[in-house]
Amino acid sequence: MAVHPWPKAPIKLGEQPAPEVVDILQGTSPAELQRIIGANWHTSGIKPTGGVTVKGTSSMAYLVTAGSVVLKTAAGLGLEYAVEQQTVNTLPAPATGTREDRIVMDRDGLVYVTQGAAPGGGITLGLFVVPAGIAATTSAQQSVDRNFAVPAGGSLGLLHQFHDPANAIKGNVSPITLGVGRTRPLPSDSWVRFDMTHCLSAIQEGTTDQPSAAIRWRVYIDDVLELAFTTRVTRAAPQTNFMSFTKQLSEGVHKVHYIQDQIEGLSGPGWMHHKGTNQGYPGNRFEVWHVGVAQ
């Protein structure tokens, strides 16, 4: 029962007389406050406001700068920690080979270096590869970026993607279904963006031909047609096109896919995929991104 909203100052209801007199107070409990904090964040991590960076030093220690971290439990409770600038020691460098130093915060808010996995309920603040024989962590190689806490209402990032591996092969004429998958769960009604990138060329049968082909992509959400896009390629050289739209989706998981076919051009077929090579062609890409909360 939500009877103690935050911040509700403690109210004295009475006294407990034995074994000593203790005030009986009513106010926001620690569990209630942790539930409220947990609801403000999707994930554990460093707050995305700067700070809590890990740097090498002139000794076998690491410098952790000031900032703040939120840790969230599987039950949805959250704790917010202030991190003061501090130095944490590590072991001497190995005599041969390398080792990994992981700078972590555990669920009690302690920051230290370990050579194993991050502790349960804690997070990794930095990861360094330590080569043999060094005497300063400035000579260690940082191998992972920091992970940030995602605030409630902020973008959850990529929900689903399909990058067609096809390159330098002919496309299809008859409809084929591609990019089938399910989004990550949406914790609330959300705005979701659908992006499609295509790199194609028309197939030229002769040096004097004027190649042309029209390709169609039909995007489905939960097996219902949402939008259709068409692109016409008129050159044998690769052409890149980008298409995007935004849709409000309800909370939960959603099925997505698209159907690709050729609607005009040579029946041979009349177009070709382009991906990678030393030209950096993007190929055909289908990506679904979380934009933010919808009311």
Layout of helices and strands:
Elements lengths: L10 E6 L5 E5 L3 H10 L5 E2 L7 E3 L4 E4 L2 E6 L5 E6 L2 E4 L8 E8 L5 E4 L8 E9 L9 E4 L12 E7 L12 E7 L7 E13 L10 E9 L2 E10 L5 E11 L5 E10 L6 E3 L1 E2 L4 E2 L2 E9 L2
Antiparallel strand pairs: 1-2, 3-6, 4-5, 5-8, 6-7, 9-10, 9-11, 11-12, 13-23, 14-19, 15-18, 15-20, 15-23, 16-17, 16-19, 21-22
Detailed description of the structure:
The structure is a single chain. The chain is mostly beta strands and 295 residues long. It has two domains: 100 residues, no CATH class; 137 residues, Sandwich (Jelly Rolls), CATH 2.60.120. It has one helix and 23 strands. The two termini are 25 Å apart.
Radius of gyration: 28 Å
Q: What is the residue-averaged pLDDT?
A: 89
The tally of domains stands at 2
Give helix % range.
under 10%
Order of helices and strands: EEHEEEEEEEEEEEEEEEEEEEEE
Number of strands: 23
Low-confidence stretches: none
| Reported CATH architecture of the largest domain | Sandwich
CATH topology of the largest domain: Jelly Rolls
